[in-house]
Fold each of these.
Amino acid sequence: MALSEFELIRRYFQQPGLMADPLLHPGVALGIGDDCALLDFGAATRLAISLDVLVAGVHFPAAADPSLIGERALAVALSDLAAMGATPLGFTLGLTLPVAEASWLAGFSAGLAAAAQRYGCPLLGGDTTAGPLQVAVQVHGTLPAGKALRRDGARVGDEVWVSGQLGAAALALEVLAGRLSPEGEAAAALLSAYYRPVPQLALGRALLDLAHAAQDVSDGLLADLGHIARASGVGMELQLAAVPVSPAVLAVATAGRASELALGGGDDYQLVFTAPSAAHQPIEALGARLQVLLTCIGRVVAGADVEVLDAGGRRVPVAVSGYQHFT
Amino acid sequence: MALSEFELIRRYFQQPGLMADPLLHPGVALGIGDDCALLDFGAATRLAISLDVLVAGVHFPAAADPSLIGERALAVALSDLAAMGATPLGFTLGLTLPVAEASWLAGFSAGLAAAAQRYGCPLLGGDTTAGPLQVAVQVHGTLPAGKALRRDGARVGDEVWVSGQLGAAALALEVLAGRLSPEGEAAAALLSAYYRPVPQLALGRALLDLAHAAQDVSDGLLADLGHIARASGVGMELQLAAVPVSPAVLAVATAGRASELALGGGDDYQLVFTAPSAAHQPIEALGARLQVLLTCIGRVVAGADVEVLDAGGRRVPVAVSGYQHFT
């Protein structure tokens, strides 16, 4: 049986007996189905939480530098807080490892500590057990009362924006798999994009007052925009030429492959968001202030599909989809 | 290199760069080292969080009934909330599984839902990925402002109490391993103790106003009392004859083995706690009201060791220790 992760969650976990009943659990402002769940405590505090599990051999190479595994695990989880506009408070760690090797643990904890300090997100507790190498990280962040960047707020007429440049992390997977061996500098840029993603926390916070909907690019641009489109009940039209592709990808891949990677590759951990056109100039000013590239790549339309258009306005058939487990 | 889980955590994770700095993170009321971490939001709300990871083949048999795996995973995690006196709010789930098999998922989610409903703890979100079977559960609970049952509050002169009867879950592991094949009724009682532990949530809540320190019995009675003793800077003297042993254990094991299991076996998920002698009668009344067996098994003394005494007051040498990973 082949089930996508999303079908699996919908079928087995989004059932009445498991989900929060709004009457019984009024503090659960948002449950399954977004980057974070939201918990409200009284009128003043909103907590955003997100749990990510990274499996050796699936989400990272088992033989990777343990410092990079630690740094990346926390950064990737923090990207979910960024996508909701939340400010990091702390994280819990579930570490499963086959043997307690001193050098591995020293490297892993040093990488975690580097990310914890950089993003102001200390370790709160957790569980360490023997077993196949996996890293579970739950991040906790705070939000102003009543606020959050959610997937379900996009409106027809919104502009669609993305931060940064896309495709490098996905191409790095081919380097890691040994299918691609670019020159030193290009390889370093690709691997850095994969191992050292930068959660867009300051951007997410600033977008609380500007954007209608947001999410991080983890499954791939089209797949992640598809999540927003479905949750919001809208469609989107993207301009292929506007989608910002990583120079490291353009240096190595053909133009067609570069587009595929930018549209379909995951692990970029940039933010995609929709905002009213009245916010266009404030968003450009925000990008300049934060020194983050922010590109308007399309618009929200009536419908249900995310379509990619060429310079002539013709629909480009795109044979990419987000990363799917279990298929 | 052989490192206990506790040495590993102390050496690699309780480092200044990773832990919360009280000046920078005033909302972190309690970090690494207790059953839960505590987060304070303003003056009114305290959140208790705990992450548990269960690995197939280590914490449960991979071929176990998926419904029991789901039910037990949530119950075990909720026991950490009980140990702090917290009331469940909801849980997140990190599920890693090799194949998305419909019957397994239906059973697992039904078991989770049964526990979620029984304990008022809905699923808030999570992550489902492909990989070796593991179940990570983070529970979130609320506490009255400023309150919690912690490990570090035991005082010399306190009485030491335990809920329920001990040893059955540990003996069930021998049944699961095929080393023991008791008669039907005894086997059912043992397996039920292992698969269907009952988190002592009502007891924990009530103890907020009665106990000085508490923890759940997960590693084994002596090991878990050792955690309280170390955190509180005290010793303990236990009366061997007072320790309540499960009738299912007494029916199958010799008296000596039964004591070993009650003192050293883990997975009971009862509560151990210390309380002033002035609380003795209120605690007995509480047990009657909740219909939970509460037994005074010893007292807190000056020192650092948890000692077991026989009826004549002589020290009983006990060669048991809690479950240790990586050794």
Amino acid sequence: MPVGDTSLPQTIYSIQGVKLGITEASVRYKNRRDLLVIELAPVVQTAVVTTQNAFAAAPVQIVREHIQSDDPIRYLVVNTGNANAATGDDGYPREPNVCKALAEKTKTNISQILPYSTGVIGETLNSDAIVSGLDDCLENLQADNWQEAAHAICTTDTIPKVASTQIEIDGETYTITGIAKGAGMIRPNMATMLGFVATDANIAPELLQSMLKDLVNLSFNRITVDGDTSTNDCCTLMATGQTLNKPLINSTQHPHYHALFDALEKIFVRLATLIVRDGEGATKFITVAVTGGKDTQECCDVAYAIAHSPLVKTAFFASDPNWGRIVAAVGYAGVPDLDANKVSVKLDNVAICTRGQLDADYTEAKGQAVMTRPEITIHIDLGRGKASDTVYTCDLSHDYVTINADYRS
Amino acid sequence: MPVGDTSLPQTIYSIQGVKLGITEASVRYKNRRDLLVIELAPVVQTAVVTTQNAFAAAPVQIVREHIQSDDPIRYLVVNTGNANAATGDDGYPREPNVCKALAEKTKTNISQILPYSTGVIGETLNSDAIVSGLDDCLENLQADNWQEAAHAICTTDTIPKVASTQIEIDGETYTITGIAKGAGMIRPNMATMLGFVATDANIAPELLQSMLKDLVNLSFNRITVDGDTSTNDCCTLMATGQTLNKPLINSTQHPHYHALFDALEKIFVRLATLIVRDGEGATKFITVAVTGGKDTQECCDVAYAIAHSPLVKTAFFASDPNWGRIVAAVGYAGVPDLDANKVSVKLDNVAICTRGQLDADYTEAKGQAVMTRPEITIHIDLGRGKASDTVYTCDLSHDYVTINADYRS
């Protein structure tokens, strides 16, 4: 069961210039939507960040190649059921075959197509099934298919992940809609399992890429379920505004830039935290907020040490305010010359450890009361500087073990 | 249930110059041996390595201080039930109080005493209970108490951990006996939860310290249960041979050095792997052997990435040859410029992934057959050099979650 508010947006806004088509292609399982094609209008700017895993899957390698091309991206094709990762020389041609078939059907160049795969690692991709499903997807293309698309990219996800917003900046209306998938093998490094966000803003290509990098570092790169970085992480940001009479945003100095970035950040953080809320076996949604560091990196290191600790995660599953495990994780996070006697820990608003020792006002009852909440923030003050960072994670439950002792796709 | 052979040695040899006394001091629980005093003869060489955790417990800080003293160490005092860690200004004086009481009773200096604590973090140490138990321990001192001592230092351990051997080098007989404790919060960094090894060899102090460092890096620093580095790790090596007419070993060139080191290494690795075999909830004992690296560090990084991956560990719990999770962990281990197409993976003698893709002869049945074994070696060949390293770990089971969702001591 996902944790807390994982509801769909009240309104899922379409993005002019973006259409989505879905089908059941039986890539691995029958009777399951497992193929998505996203069609972009001819002049859409697209930016991508991909996994840093050395076993980057064949589709990831092709995405990296195609995004370099001068031709604008026209189609994204996404399958679930098989990640086409660690498939070596056999895996590589299978995605180009899919791209080639789609290029022929749509009269585009193969380099205008970005392929994405997610599912089991190390098995041969059934690219014939994907090719057979393309016609269905193309016939089915609609601007209001975002929710269906979010379903089609799920694997162990128990909920579709959609975020959507509309804002007005200086009389100009901007729309942003995105979907994501992921529940396990989640500690994205430069991107998440799969995230697709589109806006009708008109953003210059270089700026779009740098915005995506910044946005991912505030969202998908700050979540962890199990510390496992996937071979297939990809996050894609599309901006369709060039032919929509939207003002060109081509620098961070543009008067619309900051408000638009903030709106995008909210969408990215919502999608990223939806992944954590749907983390495999999650019963608690945990925010680890670290302040008082010398730099962001050491705050991030401390936050991840806590977020990855199986002992911390099982204590949260048990609603046990076992704060010794939290400070132990702070202590081994590798912060140079950390003075334990300056470190303070709060759970939500309850001070537990103040400057290295039990807070004078702390009682087990107070700690217990916080720990029973489904959403908890661990506040760590390192007491040595002004930097801060935040990571989102979930607990480690019996269901995590059950799911991953069974899952093979 | 611990995994595989966790039997006690056929013979537990006493070490001349070492006596051990045990009692029930009710530090946290009643009716449980929880206090150990080790008495060393006046001229014993002692070397210690301690945790790198920034929240190093009060006893660890005192051990570091006392070991610097010129006076030879005469007593070690070890309690379970409470780690006296993250106890700030309150915790520090409590261990000196114990040392002071023991020094008075034994007419030694306080700096000749090393204190060790293990158990719950962040609670006030009941040092009065420890002091009250000292007389019992001193009355009870015996050379053949190693097995009782191994019981007395257990917390969540389900088995006492003892290793003992006797070897002859050039007509000289050397004896080595050691005990260790630990089952959770196990990813030692420079030492393990608690390990005590004694030999009757006569080893010069500087050499003893450097041997201990090397031995720990081959044993306790190569195990992980959950990746959590404890606040209280300490490993102590004692050499009693100076007054026993044993030849002085004062350099690595000494003709006895290598054979003695090998014998010590076997004892250290046995104690370290006993901790993994008794890992919380463990059902499988897993050796991760990485070869073909450019240097030892990258082999170690890859081995630990695999050994810490919850997805790999749950797959082993399920006896599921889900090797995609193994290569994903290799891929995110941070090895610079790793070529996935040179990486090979074997489970015991079954080749699964050869140079980046499924081995031609692999069948699911072969993988399944290996995975049902209680002891499995994951062989990774990085295909880029001659360095190697090995890490020992266990799987992640429902019982791990159960134990750590309950444990508070």
